[in-house]
Predict the 3D structure of the following.
Amino acid sequence: MKIRPTRRKSLIYLVALIAVALAAVFGANAVSAGPRHSPSPDAEEHEDVVAQRNSTTGSCGVERWAVKTGTDADVGLINLNSTTPTTIAALDALTAPSSLPAANRVQPTETTVFRLNATLVEYKLEADSDYHLVLNDGSGHTMIAEIPDPACVGSGSPLLSAITSARSAFDATYSPTGSFQTANVPITLTGVGFFDFLHGQTGVAPNGIELHAVLGVTFGSSTGGSVTLANPGAQTGTVGQAASLQLSATDTAGGALTYSATGLPAGLTLDTATGLISGTPTTSGTATVTATATDSTGPSAANSFTWTVNPSVSGGITNGGFETGDFSGWTTTGHATVTSSAAQTGSYGAMLGSTAPSTTSTAAQTFTAPSGSTKLSFSYNVTCPDTVSYDWATATLKDNTTGTTTTVLAKTCVSSSGWVAKTAAVTAGHSYTLTLTNQDDNYAGDPTYTYYDDIALS
């Protein structure tokens, strides 16, 4: 059958349209040296997600997610105590693997923590709650770094703490949204190497290499100095008892250093100039505190830690922190004073013994363990330049209800112990007598004394 002219013309048009479409597809492989954008850069992520109501967007990722967040079987192969300096050019030059395992790592790249200096070109919040950072080295090389939302990271991941700190450090400077925002600032990142699938991501490296997850963020040029902030570790306290914590930062950037903190337990405040957190907790519970140290020239560092405040126990120990400035509630013998130099927290602590020779000094209190109490705690700091044969600190707890005595602090003599916490179990409703002791042999050459503070029931 002959093809009519109109039908032949339609076929010609169809062939032409197919040719144009194929040219567009194959022409897409030629890209500029700048950040690679998909046709719709603010809606480029089309990966699968799962619901997570605690995350920033309400969703977390799926694709190679265990590897991205450190819950995979190979995470133990990462040496978190070693960092390898690198460049975007060096990472872009790595050979991409032929396949990407869903829940295992491509060694050695994905088991290495890299340190990278670059320019943060732009950033955005992705649908999977990651922060998507586009990096450039100024010489035509680009790559991506990703900071996961801690809510999308498994609690057992050894990367969780560092991810939380990195996310907080970024939040201290920028507020990502679902659209790209321009930064163009120097940045130093540490993070685990990661190969991603190529699917049109903005800023993607030719081989799909990324830092994912980012474990550390410092803004500002590394040649201009940086800020590091020591992580103080988990903190504990008790409602109604004074608490304090000194943040410690190192700053080589040359500007003025200030501190900030979020998530502090109710009743605690931060001195932004000195980094001292102090106050008296008013509410029990566990808070996640994020502290940040920032140099006025730009660099900053952040760390996150928990602060658990235990409920107060009514009754029980009287004047356990000696904050009355005297021994109210206590019975003393020998050389016993309340002084600010003996304070571990708050303004005062008890000093038994003296910087001059003395004999046996004690402070004792009889109390009833109230309902709900299970533990007695206190801290001591002994200065004993002698030997335990002659001088020592010790503490006993007698259960007057049962007639048994527990040695909470065995005889101890060290030149300078620093503050040491001790605990003992108690039974609610029982009567107890706590006796704190400092023994000195009255020898002129080696006076011994002991500080005691923060005696409490919980």
